[in-house]
Amino acid sequence: MMRMTLILSLLCSVVYxxxxxxxxxxxxxxxxxxxxxxxxxxxxxxxxxxxxxxxxSPLPSADEIKDQQDLLPSKSDLKLQQAGPWADCVKAVTxxxxxxxxxxxxxxxxxxxxxxxxxxxxxxxxxMEDYVKHNWSAPDCTYQxxxxxxxxxxxxxxxDVAIQRDSYDRSDLGTSSHDxxxxxxxxxxxxxxxxxxxxxxxxxxxxxxxxxTHFVGDLHQPLHVGAVYLDAQSGARVDPDxxxxxxxxxxTAGGNSIKDENVVLHGxxxxxxxxxxxKATAELMTSARAxxxxxxxxxxxxxxxxxxxxxxxxxxxxGLSFGPKGTDHKWPVSYGSPEKHMxxxxxxxxxxxxxxxxxxxxxxxxLNTIWPKN
Length: 374
Hints:
Elements: H1 2-11, H2 26-40, H3 45-55, H4 80-83, H5 86-89, E1 93-96, E2 100-103, H6 122-134, E3 161-162, H7 180-191, H8 205-219, E4 226-227, E5 229-230, E6 237-238, H9 240-243, E7 258-260, E8 263-264, H10 265-270, H11 282-289, H12 301-317, E9 321-322, E10 331-334, H13 338-370
Parallel strand pairs: 3-4, 7-10
Antiparallel strand pairs: 1-2, 5-6, 7-8, 9-10
């Protein structure tokens, strides 16, 4: 059964989203993380009440609404499970001349909209447009995977710490004031009535909670924290910190520039085991409840968890070898043999379950700390 699970998982790993909308964990993983946290805060009436009221609050005004009056009303009774994909849904907002921002459906890929249906009202799409507009540009914050600007907010989903490092440290390359650790801390700041550090512009607590739910999930996807840097000519690993600068020709974009046949390595790690569905299974809940509580101040948790994820990323690249970068600008990956490849997929499956459980547990821990039991 496990072998069949792994084979089906591999077949489902083809990256079908265009680069601007690639979703860490896929929306399924983000919903699973939210579902786990939903369960873990149930015995805390205070946190449950705050989360429900915040997620189901409207925008304070409809000033941003223009020609969207024909859209469906918002779904009611949003939970963290539905909130999880929101920060990827905003990637449908495009930048037009005149500094205009518009949420636009992709007619060729209606499936992209599936996780975003809870936010298809005029008010909620206006919220997404407003968020992208105010988080589009900032000093030293650009996102250009296709050679053109796609908005600073896309950087909030990841860090690119070289796997040669043993911990997440802001003095290391691949970290920044706008990476996923910084984004989590910014969301926590808003939820605790503080002002987030630049460049983050978060409108209100609802937006902060939507972002927090997503980014805690991102933080636990190994290739969203740890990165391998490769020589373009040989495929040999390089250490950017040793050179005191990142050579753009060595960046693998979190494994998006590494492929196995036609499957992108990052995409393989994004796909969750198919048998999990979109729910918090009994297996995941058992694992999540076993995650130890943190005893240090909350403002250091994101960096602490990033360090843990970095170590998982080191393991994710263990035993892999790479060839020279091809004409498609991607490095081919080798597992050594078909048997080793199957063993790698088996281990990947186990790690995904572990990381999803940790993410849900850590999200709930933040919320239970912000809103403790009365």
